[in-house]
Structure formats: structure tokens, C-alpha cells
Amino acid sequence: MSFEYNNSGKIFTDIISKTPLDVIVQTTTHLVQGTIHIRLEERLKDELDRDELFLALTDVNILDSAEKTLYTTDFIAIHRDQIVWVLPNEKEEATK
């Protein structure tokens, strides 16, 4: 990690602070529950509108059509062309 200082003492780093948001992502074949990390002062839509090919999620459960867990993983990158819709997982947020 690198640090830089300007003449007034302001510190600049290469770390980008983000806020975790639990979401449900419907792909063309599966339902995915996980956490998206959104830059501070931005919205979920801002993260979805980025020009990156993949959307990164952490703490992921991949579900089948009956909502049975098929896979669990710490990280997944979903190609944005495969995403049908994304919504905040309010049910998960209410239980925390």
C-alpha cells in the first residue's frame, strides 16, 4: 500500500473505502445471494452502471429454482451480460 502527502498534509492512499450491501442477483440460470461492496457516497445503481465486465460479490450462496443452495463461496465474479436483475436483500438486512 502506498501513501502520498500534499503540501497541506492531506494523505492520499490507493485504498477505496466501500460499504457492503446484501443483494439478490438473478442471472439467466441461477439466483445468487451475496454482498456487493459500493463506494462511499454512491448508490447500488452507480455500482451496476460501471463499465467493468464483471460484478464482484462476496459471501455468496448460489441457489437453484427451488431456492436450494447449490454452492457457497467467499467470492464470485458474475459477467454483467448474465445479470437479469439485482435487488437489495431487505429480508437479510431486517434480521441483522
Q: Assess the beta-strand content as a share of residues.
A: over 45%
Into which percent range does the helicity of residues fall?
A: 10-25%
Number of strands: 7
Q: What is the CA–CA distance across the termini?
A: 32 Å
Rg from Cα? 16 Å
- Would you tell me which CATH topology applies? SH3 type barrels
Contiguous uncertain segments of 5+ residues: none
Shape: elongated
The main pleated sheet reads as:
5 strands, antiparallel
Strand-pairing-aware structural class: mainly beta
Strand order of the largest sheet: 6-5-4-3-7
- List the secondary-structure elements in sequence, H or E: EEEEHEEEH
Q: What is the correct CATH architecture?
A: Roll
**Contiguous helical run count:** 2
Mean pLDDT across residues = 87
Give the C-level CATH assignment: Mainly Beta
State the domain count: 1
Q: How would you characterize the overall build of this protein?
A:
The protein has helices at 44-48, 90-95; strands at residues 3-5, 11-13, 18-27, 31-39, 54-63, 69-79, 83-88. The chain has 2 helices and 7 strands, in the order ββββαβββα. The strands form 2 sheets. Strands 6-5-4-3-7 form a 5-stranded antiparallel beta sheet. It has one domain (17-90): SH3 type barrels (Roll). The model has no long low-confidence stretch (mean pLDDT 87). It is elongated. It is mainly β and 96 residues long. It is 11% helix and 54% strand. The longest helix has 6 residues, at 90-95. The two termini are 32 Å apart.
